[in-house]
Backbone:
């Protein structure tokens, strides 16, 4: 008997889908990409032909009306996430939505409520959280392998400033580095510490050349027991994506925290042990975890409440940068 698979519809021809998420779904074990939609049928068909997708639609509504589509992936601009997530939920489709899932906590709550009411799965596309190494690192921290956690430092930066037409540079659409890449260190700290931050102080460079969005931001996010996340994120800086958990007796270092090789180092007493993890496609892992919830009724890996809490922390960070003051979360 042929195993049932989740049949995906891709909502837009965004580059992140073409580059990463769609190949991951296609590589996964329990999913298939069945259709793609764009506001232009010509663009959708061209995209479908390039990626071997069977069906193309010239509107998002047509995709949502297709009874053969089980789930949709939404990589639309940030300000459209709420609208189309709610429409997808009302159409009975399960949803994987790009990060940040919303523009603020209130929007995230509306989206969660709509999906809960419709009985559909909603997941935020933080692909790195599906890597096995993050589970391993959480266990090492919990078991006291590096002593008591003293702090986390993480960065995610890249330079895309030359592309002035990028939608990430439209403030009203949820542009800026905090929403685009700052979400990674913030979500990672919450994941590894298994708690919520209490306050944040952020400082940012807002570029008039790029719609006055934050092109670089640095911050300190406070957790309990004097522990803090220090981080920076940028869309106009040299590429980096690292994370370090500092403990009283050692530290854990990820040279490629969100993209790239999935190994990590444990450093204690001047000695380094490198833990080699199998580099399984994290987008495929994300899709298969999603499929387990859709097909098997398994609880989603990250509950709805996580979506709301993460958005609350992210928006507080942007508020702090804009107001130039410490913000309580």
Residues:
């Amino acid at each position: 008997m042929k195993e049932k698979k989740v049949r995906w519809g891709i909502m837009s021809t965004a580059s992140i889908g073409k580059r990463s998420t769609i190949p991951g779904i296609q590589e996964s074990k329990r999913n298939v990409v069945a259709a793609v939609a764009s506001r232009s049928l010509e663009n959708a068909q061209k995209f479908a032909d390039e990626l071997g997708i069977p069906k193309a639609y010239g509107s998002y509504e047509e995709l949502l009306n297709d009874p053969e589509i089980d789930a949709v992936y939404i990589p639309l601009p940030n300000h459209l996430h709420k609208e189309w997530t709610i429409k997808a939920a009302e159409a009975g489709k399960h949803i994987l939505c790009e990060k940040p899932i919303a523009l603020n906590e209130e929007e995230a709550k509306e989206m969660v409520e709509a999906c809960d009411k419709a009985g559909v799965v909603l997941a935020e596309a933080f692909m790195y959280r599906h890597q096995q190494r993050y589970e391993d690192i959480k266990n090492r921290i919990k078991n006291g392998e590096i002593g008591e956690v003293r702090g986390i430092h993480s960065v995610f930066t890249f330079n895309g400033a030359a592309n002035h037409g990028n939608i990430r540079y439209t403030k009203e659409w949820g542009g800026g580095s905090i929403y685009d890449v700052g979400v990674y260190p913030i979500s990672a700290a919450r994941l590894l510490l298994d708690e919520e931050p209490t306050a944040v102080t952020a400082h940012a460079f807002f570029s008039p050349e790029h719609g006055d969005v934050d092109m670089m931001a640095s911050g300190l996010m406070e957790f309990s027991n004097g522990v803090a996340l220090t981080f920076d994120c940028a869309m106009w800086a040299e590429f980096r994506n690292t994370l370090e958990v500092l403990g009283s007796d050692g530290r854990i270092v990820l040279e490629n925290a969100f993209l790239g090789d999935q190994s990590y180092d444990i450093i204690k007493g001047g000695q380094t042990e490198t833990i080699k993890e199998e580099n399984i496609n994290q987008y495929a892992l994300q899709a298969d975890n999603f499929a387990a919830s859709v097909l098997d009724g398994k609880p989603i890996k990250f509950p709805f409440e996580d979506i709301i809490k993460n958005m609350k922390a992210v928006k507080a960070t942007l508020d702090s940068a804009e107001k130039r003051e410490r913000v309580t979360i």
